[in-house]
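Co-fold these.
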Amino acid sequence: MPARPSARALGPRAERRVRLYYRLRGYRVLAANARAGRNELDIVLRRGRRVVFCEVKARSGEGYGDPREAVGPEKERRVRRAAEIWLAGHPELLELEIALEVVGVRGKRIERVPLG
Amino acid sequence: MLARATTHALVGLEAWPVEVEAHLQRGVPAFSIVGLPDKACQEAKERVRSGITSAELEWPLRRLTVNLAPAGLRKEGSGFDLPIALAVLAASHQIPAERLAQHAALGELALDGRVRPVPGALVAAEAARRAGLERLICPPESAPEAALAGIEPIPVEHLAQAGAYLRGTFKPPRVAPPEARNGSGGPDLADVRGQERARRALELAAAGRHNLLLAGPPGTGKTMLARRLPGILPELTIEQALEVTRIHSVAGLLPAGRPLVDRPPFRAPHHTASTAAIVGGGAGPRPGEATLAHRGVLFLDELAEFYRPALEALRQPLEDGSIAIARVQGHAVFPARFVLVGTMNLCPCGGRGDPAAQCSCSPQRLAAYRDKLSRALLDRFDLVVQVPRARSTELAGSPGEASAVVRGRVESAAVRLRDPPDLSKPGAELLARAVDSLPLSGRGRARVARVAETIAALAGEASVGAEHVAEALSYRSPTELGSWT
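Predicted complex below.
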């Protein structure tokens, strides 16, 4: 196995690690790579009365900027829109508290930030 | 999940009630403000959010819509921050909504949740009282001002304090309305040596609120004299003081720690001032210097250097005592009852009128200089006085009369002028002769008669005699300007 994973596999690998990360903290994965309208939701999770829509951003190393900076206002709008559409298909979840999060993966580090 | 707070939007010099509604709905968290907010008001979003988080209150993770009603009224400025934050807190059940509904609120939020003052607290407080509300939650700096309106101000330094107050766990200090202090009004007239005629004119201008033009070579004390006019003007009555305070409050000019303007204001705009700066203007009209000088003095130093349109725009307020401004966004009527004091040289080089200097102006330059002031504007100066260069003996002499002494005379004359003395027969005859032989307009005649009344009142006479009319005529332009005809 090469020292640096190929760029192609970077995203899916990061998303797999993030799912594990959440599950270790008591979250249940409701959906992964779910299509909602024209956009995609990386991971949808639930713990108790809280539903989290999670956007995963990965960078292979230092020098490419913080992965969390990669989510600008336009991307935020798309995640928000996708979440709304996805929720429309799951009306039973509407009563719950809803949160958006960006998770940055850089090397071995995983960092969570709430969005909006 | 709907809560309301009451606040006020400034339109001209008035405050309109605005209902702030915060609605929390289920769904993806988002925050939007509707109801015609301007840029500063739209940015309230970021301040309100940071403020609530910094106050260790909870930002609701819901779909949040804030509506500012009536939706058709433009909302300007940052004073909506505090009411929006309070409505959000009430909608998320962090403070009792019924208690909030009994209060008006006003204030800008800092990112750390501190409450900052905004202009117009006095008019907002007055409007709140008219609407039947008894308390106004406001920044501590605005509390004394709000107390003037007869409402109970609730001074809060921080959003957390406002929350604690509404939950009943914090008792804010009581704030009493400020008292008039009757301080002295700037520099003293005792500093002026000699210049007896100009001092006399200044006293007349103060007693009868006449417009005054001081003309003369540079360095003779024109500006010095004019700056001493506020010091001899009568005190403002409490109604007048409130009126002036309201204007200065909206303009955001109230000095910290002196919330009541109890002395006649003195405004001295620079001669580069634009027309809108002088008479007021802007998209949502804002008061200009003429309105800020209401009940006081508008001082135009180097009158001839001002832009001509700016000067001509003063003609209407000089007659009516108010300015009507119409803009697409709305119109406003601003009060503007001021004493206009102008100074100017007699020619562009300034040498004219000084016996020791030689005027080097060409006839063309002189004509251009005189053209800057229209006859219509000059006609509105009741008192035109030449200020000659003082002689060395005058400058070395003892100090002149102090402002306090002159003000005593001015105040008793102003009282007598409420019931002006009648024109005596010899006075009327002299005035009639003057109309026939001098270039005196109908307005000019009326103004001469008013100055004569002031002179008689200052002398304590029961009727206006010929000598009073004669003195009044001697101040009449343009003869006073020497070769100005």
